[in-house]
Amino acid sequence: MLYVRQLKEKPSQTRIDQLINVALQQEIFAYFESNDTKTKWIGVGSTSRIYPDKSNDRIQEVDDWYQKLKKQFPSKIDLNDIAILGGFSFDQRSAHGMWGPWSSGIFILPRIIIKITDQSITITEIKAHQFSEQSLADTLDEMVLMTHNKQDLIDFSIEDLDENWDQQVDDLAMTIRKSNILKKVVLGRYKQGRIDGGFDSVAAISALRKFDQTTYHFIIKIKDQTFISATPERLFMLNGNDFSTAAVAGTIGRGQNKLADNKLALQLFNDAKNRSEHQIVVQEITERMKNFTSDMSFDKTPMIIKNLTVQHLYTPITAKIDDQTNVFQLLKYMHPTPALGGLPTNDAIKIIQEMEARARVLFGAPIGYITFSGDSEMIVGIRSMYLRLDQFLMFAGAGIMPDSVGTEEFKETELKFKPMIKLLEYLKGQTNE
């Protein structure tokens, strides 16, 4: 039996900022913000959490844990206001020791969950034991007193981990050209580094919002481990029977001004290699969706979506799903998309595991929230960084096709590293002002 109490408030920017600032200074928290900024989920503390066993089916293991928790909630509680937050590992590959218990993923049922929409703020507290006489409002006030003094980021160092990555790309492109099976493989590279000082999550989220308001913002922290993402890519959103996803594949940089930016967008739109890569992703996603719907809708011509350092070809896809399909089944159908894995999926994943120097874990993986009413929004953990104590790791990948050129793909991945590098530079600059 879980004990639950809730209160609702009218939203105001002052109150929202206060709740975010308090939550993101705790030792354990999770934060999700939609790409339109209208929906936020904030979790503080941990009533229950799970680190899936890397030797088992990690999605099924979390599903079983979720179902057991669901049975423990009181019957009169609105389950749409309660969610688990976290993410699965990209695959079942054994991870580099730096990831520790997160190797197959991490999900939290927070002790306090704050759901923020345009209409309301709902604050829920969940405990395994009965509440004391202290009210939920007083508990929130106590949280303010529990905040930690932030540590400024004084400096950081960074280095590439993948020597001759561009040559690897050229070799892989030749392998794809010679293959009668392979169509695309998403190959990643890594940067690692150290920070001197601390990492201020409140300042980090504030900075990412200033940099780019068109991306999702996600961060999860458990004591000395933190993962942060400013991803443009949604894996899927499920609201009742309404399902939506998108193909995001094909990349070019941003221009110095509006005219130059639009010229690059037109170049991307007309580029045969990028259009082919994008169409492969659209075809594969819609083929997978036939497992759970016969009612899907999408435009045959892609749009352009613009982010901080790059712009992508983008095709939204919507559908109505059947009543028998739940979010965990959708995860098994939809992850990994060809935008992060390749085609055919199993062959591409095998090559990724052979060629990439380390396991991706949360990089490129499904992250987000799942409510106990079954609604969810899962995003893809790219444009991201993982920190543990004073060390950090970054990942960027590129879709390798038969005509890919290593030097060009290297330039593309450098652009994809920029959001997190710019974040560290910003936090360092704040300290030195």
> What distance lies between the first and last C-alpha atoms, to the nearest angstrom?
51 Å
The percent range for helix content is 25-40%
Tally the helices. 10
Largest beta-sheet characterization: 12 strands, antiparallel
Low-confidence stretches: none
Overall shape: it is globular
**Approximate strand percentage:** 25-35%
The class by helix and strand makeup works out as alpha+beta
- Give me the Rg, rounded: 21 Å
**Average predicted local confidence, pLDDT:** 93
Total strand segments:
22
Blueprint (SSEs and pairs):
Blueprint: E1 3-9, H1 13-23, E2 28-33, E3 40-44, E4 48-50, H2 58-70, E5 83-88, E6 105-109, E7 112-116, E8 121-127, H3 136-145, E9 153-160, H4 165-178, E10 184-197, H5 201-211, E11 217-222, E12 225-229, E13 234-239, E14 242-253, H6 258-270, H7 272-289, E15 296-298, E16 303-306, E17 310-320, H8 327-334, E18 342-343, H9 345-355, E19 366-371, E20 376-380, E21 384-388, E22 391-400, H10 406-432
Antiparallel strand pairs: 1-8, 2-3, 2-11, 3-7, 4-6, 5-6, 5-19, 7-8, 9-10, 10-18, 10-22, 11-12, 12-21, 13-14, 13-20, 14-17, 15-17, 16-17, 19-20, 21-22
Helix pairs in contact: 4-10, 5-10
